Amino acid sequence: MIFIYFIILTLPAYLIRFSIFGLKTNLMDIFLILFLGGWFLRKILRGEKIKESFLRVRGFLLPAILLLSGVSLAVFKSSDIFVSLGIFKSWFILPVLFFIAASDIVKTEKQKISVLRVWFFSGIAVALLGFVYYFLGEITYDGRLKMFFLSPNHLAMFLAGPFIAGLWFLLEEKGRLKMVYVGLGVFFIGMALFFTKSLGGFSAILIAVLFLIFSEFKTIIAH
């Protein structure tokens, strides 16, 4: 669990890029490979079958296989196969394997909520750092916040997930003090998102918020 928390907290590490024998990679790839290697070794030492971990997410496997098959064809038709393999590894292979391994470790409702909580806190940390960038004038030529991300849209998409997680906690948390803390976190992330001026990020959040409202409404009706 600790390594899963670490990976969530260090997601921007994908921005630290380098090459190994001509293959493009980044620091997050290294973290994921270490995590997957440790998970695989633990399964072997415990005498557990890897197959069972894949079966646990079998509803996800067919779409994942179809996606990976389609992308792999594009990779081998690419004019620069090393660049394409690097993208394939970082954007598809490692995230899919991480999801399978994490699903094998994160099983209980409490564990799932703790992962969401860490994700939310990571968003708050980036948002607070974003305020420093913004008020120091470290913005794009058109006045948008991007920090150390590749673009304001990249930053917005990074913050969108923690923002939505925060909204979910606002709906689920009990206790006035907890709601105040969560509300402040949502406000900080929301302000950082506003500074990005990202239409794509705002659209994704709007769709997710509508889904949350619909899910909550269905729960109320069911009761």
Structure description:
- The chain is mainly alpha-helical.
- It has helices at residues 2-9, 27-45, 50-56, 58-76, 81-105, 109-135, 152-172, 176-196, 199-222; strands at residues 17-20, 23-26.
- The longest helix is centred in the middle third of the chain and has 27 residues, at 109-135.
- It has nine helices and two strands; from the N terminus they run H-E-E-H-H-H-H-H-H-H-H.
- It starts with a helix and ends with a helix.
- It folds into two domains: 2-105, no CATH class; 109-222.
- The mean pLDDT is 84.
- Helix 2 (27-45) crosses helix 5 (81-105).
- It has a two-stranded antiparallel ribbon.
Please describe the structure with a list of short key phrases separated by commas or semicolons.
mainly alpha, 2 domains, two-stranded antiparallel ribbon, single chain, 4% strand
Q: SS-based structural class?
A: mainly alpha
Q: Sheet with the most strands?
A: 2 strands, antiparallel
Distance between the termini: 34 Å
Helix content: over 70%
E-strand count: 2
The proportion of residues in beta strands is: under 5%
* Unreliable residue stretches: none
Total domains, how many? 2
Shape: globular
Topology at a glance:
Blueprint: H1 2-9, E1 17-20, E2 23-26, H2 27-45, H3 50-56, H4 58-76, H5 81-105, H6 109-135, H7 152-172, H8 176-196, H9 199-222
Antiparallel strand pairs: 1-2
